């Protein structure tokens, strides 16, 4: 109870403070749909394992979750192909920019982890399996709606199309992996699914809800069943901690101390294992591509609540 | 109480099992002193925050802690120069071998983190400050003896000399950083201190004792005072989690789920924040240079005790 | 006259000797059409600036000229866009494998020279300009037939199709350059033209004829007009010397001492400035992808005739 | 005769023109001795194979030849250890800055060619052999005085000392190669000799004289004997062409078309095989570290005289 009160106070204070900030970073500009987003927005939502939902600011404004979607496709892929997934994608931090192709060449087309672009494309290929892109997208969408208990979640087709038209670098990565036999499906099929799941549009509330299973030892708290085993949930959290923020993953672990995943749309999802799931959103990015105010909000929340996984 | 019993049982079982294993990996061979170590050894020691010490196997056999010492010099350096340390060393995982010089060239001589060799050499330069190597080594030794409550800990001069004679690659790293102004002292002074603190000889018991402050929010549990602030303790733990095992850091996070630091002598130190500190040792290494049986023992212990920081 | 006699003798001896060699290297195997070529073939043809044609061995057997075609498209592109070509492709040796993508990332998508794959693709984009692929291929074919005074030269459509089906790595390079704005046309158009001009099928005789202008200060010796200025001919020769043999360019300069260009089909074209043009062919390749016997034949011919550009 | 007249006219015009230029580039600044050199100087000297010496501008002002000395130590090393030298140094262009350590790591400590710093240090180690640094330096000095027929050539001890004090990056390279067993002698011995031969002080006249053997098929034109075989002379010329100007080697081949070697002191030595040797000097450097006016003077001289090795 006391904790809920402290949480409500913390979220309210953070939301109020962030609404006034002027140093917001620049929004992503590589596609017009993201470039147009108003930077003066900030949302936050926390869902505790005992079911309390605490929201603040623009928690109900939908935004493009972009790379945050990689956590859900990783979860799906592990369910579909199990640990054989790790034959085609590693789980080590990359020490490079999210879209670097250098590492791929040095390591024979095997991406370092599932959260750099190349790795997420390889994961998407595994999710695709022998199915058609349309079916696969349907499955991804159903999965996320189920996780969030919310049928209103959709994919923004305009964003997906825009990504496709500007996705030459991802096409380079995909072709490179295809050349090394790391992906099996036709490059344009894999990229089609990839660009579409990155174009998922969600609110902070929906995102925090969808992340609950990772805070709950893999269980869907309302449906009751296991989405993944508790061991797999821990492992997904571990990968988020070491690789979830591109070349700022060490920094996020250092400052916030929670497993998390960011996207260039300005969203960040984080997990307090055994306690809560969190989503924050603010479109302005720092120099490595993570939400500037979002990262700061996470740091402050984790500190106030004593939630760091690295100690009291 | 029940927990203590479970811990004692787990440690005993692990020690018994590891004593019988034959797939031990190869001991480090780049200096004769390490190459001569008998691979058929395994030690483990856990110290809980409530003061219980549980040891198994060769927990009282001294070994060369090598890179594990980097955690202690990092702690010292942060105490001496504070967060200005981060101007000359980063805190991102490297995505490269522990002794790579490529990253240094791409990033103007600034090492990615304090646990790759270059970073630990830069940290050693900060600890050295304006003092003489001999004084500095005395300070490091006093610090570790204090942390472990054990005056018997020493530096193996033969190992230190052997490292110096074979340390051309580290000399390359140090000269490269000196060329970029990242280290200030004479290269041979810095390397002298570095090779000597890596030559610290400790038992699992001593190492687990020395690590207690990181499990205790920065406090020395018997002396009572703060070694570092709780925030700094969390941050050191965070860096261990993301960077503590060279290019196997992601794997250790994935499998074990605890902040830890390994050394080529076969030792691994790990922290269960708020609960316990652990040291294991077995000289045979896996292909990225971490103790093979040591890593497995850590994985098993964390699983049995439910100690992963990534969830229940 | 005496020179002609010496040349005839040299060519005959080399052809006879190479016919008996058993250490021929392995033929390229990445597409079935190249993998099927009989390795026991060797052809050579020299055309002197005074019009003498000296052929030996399988000089009239057609083969896939592959990367040798890059010299002709470079010549065409310089004619079409002039020195502005150098804004999108460099002229420095690469120090990397022919199909490396690492350099592209480090240098913002600008390939180091026109003879690595990425550079040749960028050159092809310049040749394409605002035309359709079919027209452009027609123009390339007419150009080469004109240079060789031979209307029988064709493109092998089966090879071109096979390259297209296996060209994921080149597609990665092209998409990467497109992402950096280094190529303007649709990736599949550029690659279509690229794969087709690499599939040109020529004999040693035809190739040596087509290369005459580079030995003649840029002039077409029978048509009489200038194909390129003498300065441009020198410069194309210079690029062949420094970059013409992938990561074996230094070796070819060191051993042979002539500007040349090799292809994975086993052909090598070389220029003796002011004196002669040469083509050799033998399908077996050395470890960096250049014709093994072809390189040796070039070395011997240059030595016997005193043709090295680096001194008597 | 006519040629001599044309040469005298060309040299005079170039010297006059360069004296008036204001866009001279910046002098090297990493050691005070080089930083202090007056940029408003330009010297040129050509020695033809028939013995004509044509000088212009500041042809008799001594300057620090720096990396140009690498040609002489390469020649010496080949005389001492023959082609076994190529086991520890390659002969391919590097595609990297002159002092890059990245390539060394990727290729196990073997430098790409004898003209990048690492390669020249490995060559110096070979020249050192089992001798003392002082003896070896004496031998190098005697060799160059003999080549130039000039006993007045000396080493600038102040420059050598200054290089030593600032040579951390070269110390990094040397230690790295020592770690890989590519150099045998003590690192400080090798660097001592290296820094001293780079500190040779010569005039354009002396340098052009010293280079004569490379234009004369390896023969010392006045002493009459062979310094190296004609084949070795050609090969040294070939390496100068492909690797003589750091990451501007392709550009020099493209623009000038002569084998040459530059130094950060602003000197360039070039060879017209079978015809002449050339030295130019102007202290201001372009962005890759080659003499700005020196390169332009070479281009103009080669064009005027029709001396490019790549054609008429």
UniProtKB/TrEMBL annotation, chains A, B, C, D:
Coiled-coil annotated residue ranges, if any: none
Domain of life: Bacteria
Xref: Pfam families: Glutaminase
Signal peptide location: none
HAMAP family per record: Glutaminase
Subunit composition and interactions: Homotetramer.
Listed name of the protein: Glutaminase
Originating species: Hartmannibacter diazotrophicus
